[in-house]
Design brief:
Protein name: Dynamin family protein
Oligomer: single chain
Number of domains: 3
Order of helices and strands: HHEHEEEHEEHEHEHEHHHHHHHH
InterPro entries: Dynamin_N (IPR045063), Mitofusin_fam (IPR027094), P-loop_NTPase (IPR027417)
Largest sheet: 9 strands, mixed
GO molecular function, one term: GTPase activity
Distance between the termini: 23 Å
Pfam families: Dynamin_N
Strand order of the largest sheet: 4-3-5-2-6-1-7-8-9
CATH class of the largest domain: Alpha Beta
Helix content: 55-70%
Number of strands: 9
Strand content: 5-15%
CATH superfamily of the largest domain: P-loop containing nucleotide triphosphate hydrolases
Structural class: alpha/beta
Number of helices: 15
Organism: Brevibacillus agri
CATH architecture of the largest domain: 3-Layer(aba) Sandwich
CATH topology of the largest domain: Rossmann fold
Length: 546
């Protein structure tokens, strides 16, 4: 049953390793070579379900001596091997010491007799990629390793880079500190970075034999250490106080520390399973940051262009503000283009409505029209004596009566409203012109005898004929008002077109600046979207692989 469980776990590790390789392949072509390389390293480690316990800390903290003591054999020199990839891996297995070079070569040494030669060979950091020592009979097996990293206080920047670049392969971190330098700020910063990355971290305060009890009792010293890390919101998975110089020191927790390492090794698969997932997540984010870094110069160029664009009421860096201002400016431009056509349509509609609703004929109008039409028939005659003169006078009287009727109705029901409507057209568009108003009010549609006579048609003077005649005269009067109104409308439209052209010219320059701002923000948003899409795509591969 146990073998079956192990087989399932090994299959899971193989699947995860394949997923990390897929992630590395997906990252290719985005200008980031470092992260895919780390993922390939992680895949190799995952496929073996290999546990890596990394020892970090200052040069003076005694890391190498501690590792040699834990192993029971002096495999490491007192100082780390000075290579640019200066992380030494020690694992169980067949006895060997190997240097892996940048060009793919592997140089093998005897760890019992040639470690000094190994150290001399590795001085050339430009050619050495990594160093690995395997040795049987220690607390380690072939699937468990200790990593000895360079001191984080090294003056060689390459050493710090080597330490940080190896952390993705570390499942557990042992952070060692000299008794006298526990509260150095560098310790807090580095430890917090490890915890933020989800790494199990155990602190080892070494060389406690330097403690002088009469100055401060040891329990108070331990409390001060714990409080210092808690102040930085750092909660390590454990703290051990050790002395290798005085194994019998009453506060020495070396045995407990070694026992913890054995327990960690015993729980290797569970630790590795959690660790590699956390490492892959971190490497995804590391790759996204690398993509962001590759966009930095382009982003800076775009932001510099934004800073060079100025509008009094718009912050060029405010993408939402720019978008809102652009939408408003484009709406205004569209409004200016459509304004004259819309104004013309509305004015013509208002004029049409006024004319359609103006009533010019009443019963009295029809009666006057009937009398008028009768006087215009052939054979119309009044009286016997002086008939010619009386007939003409009667015709004139009836004409004047009909003219008075139409003029009264036009004055009350049409002319006043027409002039009021035409007068308001310029005001509606904030244009003031007294001369225009004077011409509107001076408008006069002449209703004359000739006008009345022009609309007489042949036919019997029936009631229907009279009503049709009145309608024809009323429509003719309205037609004259329509013609006059359209002339005024055309004048207003011309004024609006001129005004719109002036406003459009002013808005066009503003619109150009806003469109350039918006384009720059779109390019910036495209960079951000590309970065986020990269993250989502890689996270999706990771989810599918689990």
């Amino acid at each position: 049953m146990l073998d079956s469980q192990v087989l399932v776990r090994e299959t899971d590790f193989a699947k995860l390793a394949h997923t990390w390789e897929e992630l590395a392949q997906a990252m290719a072509g985005q200008g980031d070579q470092a992260t895919p390389a780390k993922l390939k390293q992680l895949a190799k480690k995952t496929r073996k379900a290999e546990l890596n316990i990394a020892f970090c800390g200052h040069f003076s903290a005694g890391k190498s001596t501690m590792i040699n003591t834990l192993l029971g054999v002096s495999l490491l020199p007192s100082n780390p091997i000075p290579t640019s990839a200066n992380v030494v891996k020690i694992r169980g297995g067949e006895k060997a010491a190997r240097v892996y070079t940048m060009n793919g070569d592997v140089v093998t040494f005897d760890p019992d007799t040639e470690m000094e030669k190994l150290k001399q060979f590795a001085v050339d950091g430009d050619t050495v990629e990594s160093v690995e020592v395997s040795y049987p009979g220690t607390l380690l097996d072939e699937h468990s390793s200790l990593l000895d990293t360079p001191g984080i206080d090294s003056t060689d920047a390459a050493h710090k880079i080597a330490t940080e670049s190896a952390l993705h392969l570390a499942d557990v971190v042992i952070y060692m500190m000299d008794y006298n330098h526990v509260q150095a700020e560098e310790n807090f910063n580095f430890t917090k970075t490890l915890k933020d990355r989800g790494k199990p971290v155990y602190l080892v305060v070494n060389m406690i034999d330097k403690h002088i009890d009469f100055e401060l009792d040891f329990e108070s010293y331990k409390e001060s250490v714990e409080e210092a890390f808690a102040t930085w919101n750092i909660h390590p998975d454990g703290i051990f106080y050790t002395s290798l110089a005085e194994p019998d020191h009453p506060e020495n927790q070396y045995a407990e520390f070694r026992q913890k390492l054995l327990a960690l090794i015993a729980g290797r698969e569970e630790l590795v399973g959690k660790s590699v997932r956390s490492a892959a997540e971190h490497l995804i984010e590391e790759h996204v940051q690398a993509v962001k870094a590759s966009h930095a110069s382009k982003r800076q160029e775009l932001e510099s262009k934004l800073d060079s664009l100025e509008l009094a009421d718009v912050d060029s860096r405010d993408a939402q503000g720019v978008s809102a201002a652009l939408a408003q400016a484009e709406a205004l431009m569209a409004s200016l283009k459509n304004r004259t056509a819309e104004a013309r349509a509305q004015m013509e509609k208002d004029l049409g409505s006024l004319l359609d609703n103006a009533r010019l004929t009443y019963y009295s109008t029809n009666e006057a029209a009937q009398s008028y039409l009768e006087s215009r028939k052939p054979g119309f005659k009044v009286g016997f004596l002086f008939a010619g003169k009386k007939t003409e006078e009667e015709r004139q009287r009836r004409e004047e009566a009909l003219l008075a009727e139409f003029r009264e109705k036009v004055a009350g029901n049409l002319d006043f409203h027409f002039k009021e409507l035409m007068s308001k057209q310029l005001q509606a568009h904030d244009i003031r012109d007294e001369e225009y108003h004077a011409r509107v009010h001076a408008t006069e549609i002449a209703i004359t005898g000739e006008f009345l006579a022009k609309h007489i048609k042949d036919g019997a003077a029936s009631r229907e004929y009279v009503m049709n005649y009145c309608t024809d005269v009323a429509n003719a009067i309205k037609l004259e008002y329509r013609r006059a109104g359209l002339l005024f409308i055309e004048e207003v439209v011309g004024r609006l077109e001129s005004q719109s052209e002036q406003e459009s010219a002013a808005q066009l320059e503003r619109l150009g600046v806003l469109r350039e701002m918006a384009s720059l923000h779109e390019q910036l948003a495209s960079l951000t979207a590309s970065e986020e899409n990269t993250r989502e795509r890689l996270q999706a591969i990771m989810r599918e692989g689990e």
